[in-house]
Amino acid sequence: MIGRIGYGESCQGMLNYVFGKEGMRILGYGNMYSQDISQKFFGRVLHFQGQRNATNNRYVHITLNLPLGEHLDDKTFQAVSREYMAQMGYGGQPYAMVRHTDTGHEHVHIITTNVDDDGKVLGIFNSYRRNVAIQRYLEKKFGLSPSPRTRQQRELPILRSPELGFHLDPAQGTKFYLQDVLNGILQKHKVRSFGELAKLVRPYHIQVRETKNISGGIGVAYGLDNQKGYRTRFINGSTVHRSLSGPKLQKIFEANSRSKLLPMHRKRILKQIEITYGLFKTIRPKELAAVLKEYQDIDIKLDRKGDVIKGYTIHDRSGYMFTERELGQNIRMENQADIFGNGDEPTEIDTDSRQFAIEIQKLIKEAFRTSHLKSPERHGLLSESIMTKNLMDILPYIATSKSYIFLERHLPGSQKGLLRKALEREFPTVRDGLFQLETKKEMETLEGKFNLIGKVLEKGIFDVGMEQGSVRLLFQALGVKYHDNQLSCANSNRHTVTVRLGNLPFPKAMEQYVSSGFVRQNHSVLELLAEKNSENGPKLTASAFFLPMIFPKLYEKMDPVYQKQYENVALGSYVKYAEGMHAPYEKSPKDYIAFFNAKGFYFTRTENSFEIKSIYTDKGTSRTLSKKTALYLNSVPDLSKTLNEQHTVIDGLVKDGRDHLKNLWAGHLMEREMYHRVAFMLTVEKVYPNLHPEVVQHHMDNGLRKSVGQAIKRQSNIQQNRLLRKGVYAISSLLGKGQEEVYNGFRDEFTDYSKYKGRGMSI
Questions:
Q1: pLDDT digits (tens, 9 = 90+) for 545-584
Q2: What is the DSSP track for 4-72?
């Protein structure tokens, strides 16, 4: 199910739109003295209450939409609507629920007001986030199909013949089909002209005809022709839907054409195609699509006229569509006769080309890096690994790579051994070049760490004295070691920097395994603290909050002033991350508070805002919430009571001994769906995750329960547990994973109707 919300300063247009649709059915009213009132009476009540406040967003128009093919009877749809209104905070307002049948998917319109009986505006903030969470809640409660969660999940309607599946009159069936396909196309592609649109909808048997009225205005009409005797008359675009009219589409086309990103995408694609042409001696035209897809991940559609291929159209991942003619004369197939020939020559790589040599070099470089990363006993630096290997050592990594398989497939038939010869020829040069490059990078990195250590010690960020050898804690946390007045990398002695600290009393055995990912994160933190203006320092991820768990002895020695600065910034990074993770579950500001409480965070009120604190940091450490979030929390009716109730949860965590960062880390891994690691912490380390029960239940159902069962069976496997323990406190696999925006796939029902002020609907 998908819900959408629009606001306006007048309700008349909304009422006309919702009650004026042919075939509409009133499912019921909310908070009215009777269910038998007239539409006119409801309109007067709504108008009177809304006009008691001068806000521009007096009135609310909500639509609840089911996916195509899903059905609810009127009674159930009314129950869904009432539950939605209650969860969104409109449960005490007057509202009307009206079912429409003018689109292919079943949907209900709800009209209400943001103004309460006292003339005050309802404190409903973060409506988008709450709307998404309530959708998820209702889907589970009423057994509805889940809505698309991210933009990557959007799919066009299944290709089908238009005469099938229409149970209404032909005109209405055609209209539904056109809405279905056209809206899907316009969401997936950044169309720039009616010609492009016509190409995109052709596989769906839709014809597009651009029209002009007497005054020269642009229009559009759509028709169906499935080439099997089913043909319809052309229907004006505005009749199909307002958002599909000529003027509306023209605005979309112009906006897409003016995008500043368009030239960048065009230049990128042109370069990729030129590189492809540079690699091949010949390409069989009908195989070009497969070649570009595998080699450059470019989707193209060949333009055919009968059996003759006239060119191709690129469907870029950016959503734009380009023709080869648009990209440049040099890449047109007709101007590349030496590559495309007469169409009968096999697709073959030009083994004498510069691009072929570049591809061979890339294969070798990637194999060196992969073999080093996948080495079971990964000791030393990449530069050291490079000089210990010959071609035979890395050949297994080369032979299994997709690039190698691609090159081998398209070699000339009589030159299959040439690939091996090319690897042998390029190997010495590539190895020497890569060795020099990595050597330079490693030395620069070590010198950077040396300079950072100097700043940290100079500023006294940590109280690490030389006498007890505590400075080793700082060295270890930055991935370096010290011996005989030399600083070197923790896992290598190849590069050194002279540091005359004398004979420090280091213990023979250093601390347990430290993740290289946490070392990088700690480096970023210390860079930030060493800068005079921390705002210009490196941006931290949520993992920075867990550094005291990884380097406990070091962070115990942190200067209180810097500790407060670190905790403030790290707390802000974690809160930002957590807000995104809570979004699918957060139905109200009370949920916002409850989800953070379950993790060991709590809120306090200040004179002008709110602050968030945690059980893992000093009591004096806090982070001020944004103005928007403060307004959101202030909308809780019984806020003082809610804030007082926090202590029950927080005190309970402390009493149960769950005020350790390990408990929060277990929840962090669970949110990232690292279930095997969580299962290890639960069964072997006996660490319970600090996470809200609702979220825990979701992950148990999503695969954690199965992982826990497997962990129980392998508890006696010491070797496996040792490897898992290392993995539990490694963050490399967690870095760089962003959260996608939740996708809303029902645009056809949410057009610009709310922008027409003259009709009483404005946003």
A1: 999 999 999 999 999 999 999 999 999 999 999 998 998 8
A2: EEEEES-SHHHHHHHHSSTT-EEEEEES-S-SS--HHHHHHHHHHHHTTS--TT-EEEEEEEPPTT---
Token pair listed for 603: 């809120």
pLDDT of residue 65: 87
Distance between CA atoms of 721 and 711, rounded to whole angstroms? 9
Residue 328: left (phi > 0), alpha (psi -120 to 50), or beta?
A: left
Q: What are phi and psi of 592, to 5 degrees?
A: -55, -45
Per-residue pLDDT of 12-54, as tens digits, reads: 888 888 888 888 899 999 989 888 899 999 999 999 999 988 8
- Backbone region of residue 165 per phi and psi (left: phi > 0; alpha: psi in -120 to 50; beta: other values): left
Q: Give pairs for 234-242: CB < 8 Å, separation 24+.
A: 234/207, 234/209, 235/171, 235/174, 235/175, 235/178, 239/175, 240/175, 240/178, 240/179, 240/182, 241/179, 241/183, 241/748, 241/751, 242/751, 242/752, 242/753
**What pLDDT does residue 162 have?**
46
Nearest to 664 by CA among 738, 611, 598, 618: 598
Segment 677-717, tens digit of pLDDT: 899 899 888 899 999 999 999 999 999 999 988 888 776 66
From CA 136, how far away is CA 87, in angstroms rounded?
12
**Extents of the domains making up the chain:** 2-147+749-757, 170-257, 262-349, 561-734
Look at the block and give the residue holding tokens 């032979």.
399
Whether residue 225 is predicted with pLDDT greater than 90 in this model: the reply is no
Question: How far apart are the C-alpha atoms of 181 and 356, rounded to whole Å?
Answer: 43
Question: CATH classification of 2-147+749-757 is 3.30.930.30, yes or no?
Answer: yes
Backbone phi, psi, residue 484, to 5°: 50, 50
Q: Which amino acid is at 300?
A: I
pLDDT for the residue numbered 440: 96
- Whether 30 and 97 have beta carbons less than 8 Å apart is answered as yes
Chain position carrying tokens 């804030």? 643
